[in-house]
Amino acid sequence: MIYPTDVRPLLEIHTVQPINSQQDRFSIAGNTIGSATAGSYQRFHSLQKRIREFEVRKEDWNGYNVSAPNADAIIKADRWIESVFRFALSRSLWLEPMVSPDENGDIVFEWQRGHRWLSVVVSADAIEFLREGDMSDGIASEGYIDSQHERETLWTWLMS
Amino acid sequence: MADVVTDEEILYRSVRQDEYRPEAGQLRILSTAFNDHGQRISFDRANLRTPQQTRKAADQAVFAVTAGEVRKITGVIVSEIIYRVEVIASPIDRNPSHAHVEALPPTPEAPALSSTGFKKLKRELAKIARMELLPASV
After folding, report:
1. A64–B120: do the CB atoms touch at under 8 Å?
2. Which of A5, A64, B56, B87 is least crowded, fewest Cβ atoms below 10 Å from its Cβ?
3. For the segment B79-117, what is each residue's pLDDT rounded down to a tens digit?
4. Contacting residues of A for B27, CB less than 8 Å apart
5. Taking CB atoms and an 8 Å cutoff, what residues of chain B touch A3?
6. pTM score, two decimals?
């Protein structure tokens, strides 16, 4: 398979160090392969930029008669993913999501890590999740994220 | 006679470049690649349209599934109700090849698909779709 040349990089699981760390390293799938602490921040800011740019999309942006992205959902998604990133930094493990609006104008984040898949839909008034994979932890397979604890529990599950 | 989409038929869907990426040696597709209104997901039938005709813009790719693969989906489950996934021919004026995928309640008494159920349908399609045509321009 030949892929387009401008697709974003392969799966990135970064062990992120403090920005002034001398040990500037990151890993993919647990194997330290390079150095890129500043790069991790840069990629995150690039993700935020992509989210904010959803605002320019009009109705029918994918050609399938969908709603335009909701401005309030964009703002909320931007803040929400930043809170996830900050928590990920504290755990030194960040996995960049794929992100896109859905047909209702809500913002969807999706992560895949091995068999674990997590989708989070941020709308103007709620944050909903769906997950697949090892779910022997007693957490529901779907529901709403109403608290910092729930957000962190899901992230910990994804990255464990 | 009703126009039935056979299991062997290939279905095409145009997908934006920011809704897929190579990951761990595989092409991963976002479930949002199947965003559609009214909980009916549009496809073109390959026996009536080429991938090039399906592509909505030069910078989009075209992904394919077979109707049989779609009908085998069993992962659209809401409150322990398993929804049946069907492919239905639904030609429209500007596109006689148009068909759509929808998840139907297993019995008349079962509730219509919820928004969560529709998210699951899109997720299941993202699992089985494969790239048919690269973008013409990047």
Report:
1. no
2. A5
3. 999 999 999 999 999 999 999 999 999 999 999 999 999
4. 1, 3
5. 22, 27, 134
6. 0.86
B3/B45 Cα distance (integer angstroms): 12
Cα dihedral B120, B122, B125, B126 sign: negative
Strand positions, DSSP E, A29-101: 31-34, 94-95, 98-101
Q: What percent of chain B has pLDDT over 90?
A: 91
> Could you report the predicted ipTM of this complex, rounded to two decimals?
0.93
What are the angstrom distances between the C-alpha of A122 and each of A46, B16, B123? 19, 21, 17
Query: Which contiguous run of DSSP H or E holds residue B127?
Result: helix B115-128
Eight-class DSSP state of B37:
G
Residue B109 φ then ψ, to 5°:
-80, -20
| A35-73 pLDDT tens trace | 336 777 889 999 999 999 999 999 999 999 999 999 999
